[in-house]
């Protein structure tokens, strides 16, 4: 996200960039957050150990069951993901997205092979994210 610009301006930039491009749909992003990655993210952003333990306890001890014809059957433990509707999940997801942004920027600096999309070069814009939507911008080559 471009911090020096307002949210509406970021949306206008994204809309202008998307003109003439196809959009790819992916599975729900909250469901795919890896808990080890979340834990590493909390560590990188220097959250206190006790707080990290509480967060990981909240997300990793969820038990699911299936309801068929009004009766509950079986219990199984989740292996990944953040619960949609949980008031904590959006905040955790923002941290995970910020970590992804940091990792991409570090890789760009290390690699030297990255080419910005021609409309993003002056801003050094690589990605925009909002809620669970992510837009990645780079120069693509079909070869």
TrEMBL record:
SUPFAM superfamilies: DNA/RNA polymerases (SSF56672)
Reverse transcriptase domain boundaries: 1-143
TM ranges: none
Designated name of the protein: Reverse transcriptase domain-containing protein
Organism name: Sesamum latifolium
